[in-house]
Amino acid sequence: MIFIDACLGKKTPYTPVWMMRQAGRYLPQYMKVRNSAGDFLSLCKKPEFAAEVTLQPVDILGVDAAILFSDILVVPLEMGMDLRFVAGEGPLFSNPILTKEDVDALEVAKAAKQLEYVYQSIKLTRERLADDKALIGFCGAPWTLATYMIEGGGTKTYGKVKKLLYSNPDFLHQVLAKVTEVLKLYLEGQIQSGVNAVQIFDSWANALEEEAFFEFSWRYVQDICSFLKGKYPHIPIIVFPKGVSGYLDKIDGEFDVFGVDWSTPIKLAKEKLGNRYVLQGNMEPTRLYSKKAINEGVEHIANIMQNSRHIFNLGHGILPDISVENAKYFIDLVHQKTKI
Ligand code: CP3
Q1: Are residues 139 and 187 in contact, defined by beta-carbon separation less than 8 angstroms?
Q2: Tens of pLDDT along 123-162?
Q3: What is the number of other CB atoms lying within 10 angstroms of the CB of residue 311?
Q4: Which listed residue, of 84, 211, 240, 282, carries a Cα 20 to 30 Å from 335's Cα?
């Protein structure tokens, strides 16, 4: 698998490429399956449907890896929280974590078991996916998940979780530790079901100042990486802490690939991390609105990364109103430009 070779730093005939959020609303085929499944969470819980939408971007765009179709928030859901996706508002938890009793009530082993529908989706997908294409499993980082669980949904200020961080750090650490334990079991379950690599999404990493980032986010990600590497050394791990370009000097851990977000100049990431890790990324997702902007974006990144270990991707998820034509143009262009 070219994608896995690239994750492990081996030479490949071209630079592999996939897109974060590649299975989603910009694909009419996705909308069709989502509508027949009911809503988004039902789609996540029905392996037959989830496998179908996981495979769509591989068939339609020719990406080098499929990413499991699910969501980072199914973990708090199965830990016992009530989750809804409200159109226009995003995810909402009706019972956010407030008290010690709330933390004690969160399930760990049971949650990892209840995620069986994800393991089934992986098995079905891996059966149907071509042998030369990789299947990526994933989870949210403990910090990002804890933020959703404490805020009860998306937030602009992070007021509730940061109030805890500075006024009752032990409480926040308890939540983070509990989520981390579930994530270890969950990623292990994904690996045992057949994923070829895993990615840890830390979408809210950039909400934290440097010291807090390492204490409340990164050390839990490192813990998950060390746990997985101890048991499954051959499975590549990709980390994606979004928006931490100022902290790259101190980034360290037992992972293989560092996902560079679009706000971090790829040249800077290469200087700071390129000799230790494979880099993934990082075209600005809205460049997909224009072929000219795609040409310039791909050219810029390919020039900087031409002699370095690299996986092409966007610097965050693809947006729902991007045309399929332009998405395919991006994938084809990367393959063509990086061929050796
Ligand atoms: O990348 C993929 O194609 C695989 C599937 C995937 C989804 N979510 C599907 C999804 C992955 C890897 C995620 C990760 C995820 N989910 C993250 C981390 C990555 C990031 O974008 O920073 C986060 C923060 C979430 C939480 C989440 N899930 C939000 C904020 C939303 C609402 C977004 C919106 O635009 O409405 C979701 C819903 C969601 N997850 C959708 C999809 C395809 C849209 C659901 C739909 O309407 O069909």
Answers
A1: yes
A2: 999 999 999 999 999 999 999 999 999 999 999 999 999 9
A3: 25
A4: 240
